[in-house]
Amino acid sequence: MGCDITVRTDGRGTIMRLHTREWGAGDRIALLIHGIMSDHRTWRRVGPALAENGYRVIAVDLRGHGASERAAEYSIPLFAADLEENLPVGADLAIGHSLGGLSLSFAVEHLRPRRAVYSDPAWALETGERPTNPETLRALRKATRSMIANFNPHWDEGDVDAEVAGIAAWDPATADAVGGEYAIDYIPERPVVPSLVQAADPSHVVSEAHKEQLRAAGFTVHTVKNTGHSIHRDDLDGFMRSVLGWVRGEEPVGLV
Question: What is the Cα–Cα distance from 102 to 80, expressed in whole angstroms?
Fold first, then answer.
């Protein structure tokens, strides 16, 4: 799908047509929503893995990321409104990482997937271990390939290349949507649909207190051991075991 700005507005601003990438042709639909500075390429191994498990997989590029266009304005409600405009309602599974998890939580009431997975979601922008600073995020635009590889020793070469490409295609102005007056906590009061929260180990955005809060609210919480913020790139097997095991109702193995 190509991308352009549509004429429709919904009170939150102008809604954008997003670029998408698909894998598979299964009877079930899975939606993938990336984090800040990335794009659909972050799912380069997850998409095919889900397709092998019977899903038709749709990954979006959020506004200001990848092949989707730049915008005059960025905000969490606008990221969510774009998802509502571009993604099908009633998918079998929706997965959002970091900013994608935050955006999905704003859109989930409309999208109503059968199940939602929030992978190290950027909900705790104020009370997380590292409060969000837009200038720090923007400084990462200068990161070299070797810096990215050294900082993420568990990633394979293709994931490093995908991150380099994603950063090059990223509009740093998107960082304003999660900083300043918008750097507040968005932790949901309850899950709208059956929901899994994946936490990295250690996680800088999902603390032990947050895990207990989320469990008490009705979320399932898995900690994928020895992973960083991008769980799906640090440990694809652990990520998939968490997601598919939860979907199948299996007891988690190697997860806490």
Answer: 9
DSSP letters, 85-105, are HHS-TT-SEEEEETHHHHHHH
**Which stretches of 160-227 are assigned E, i.e. beta strand?**
195-199, 220-223
pLDDT digits (tens, 9 = 90+) for 36-78: 999 999 999 999 999 999 999 999 999 999 999 999 999 999 9
Q: Do 185 and 125 contact (CB within 8 A), yes or no?
A: yes
Detail the DSSP E strand segments found in the chain.
Answer: 5-9, 14-16, 20-23, 28-33, 55-60, 93-97, 116-119, 195-199, 220-223
pTM equals 0.93
195: number of Cβ within 10 Å:
24
Encoding tokens for residue 219? 């979320």
Angle between helices 76-86 and 99-111 (to 10 degrees): 50
- Asked if the peptide bond before residue 202 counts as cis, ω within 30 degrees of 0, the response is yes
As to burial, measured by CB atoms within 10 angstroms (0-12 exposed, 13-18 middle, 19+ buried), residue 69 is: middle
Q: Which residues are CB-contacts of 194 (< 8 A; sequence separation ≥ 6)?
A: 114, 115, 116, 220
Indicate the helix (H) or strand (E) that contains 25.
none
Using DSSP's 3-state secondary structure scheme, residue 40 falls into helix
Cβ neighbours of 88 (radius 10 Å):
11
pLDDT score at 33: 98
Nearest residue to 206 via CA among 135, 122, 144? 122
**Would you call 30 exposed, middle or buried from its count of C-beta atoms within 10 A (0-12, 13-18, 19+)?**
buried
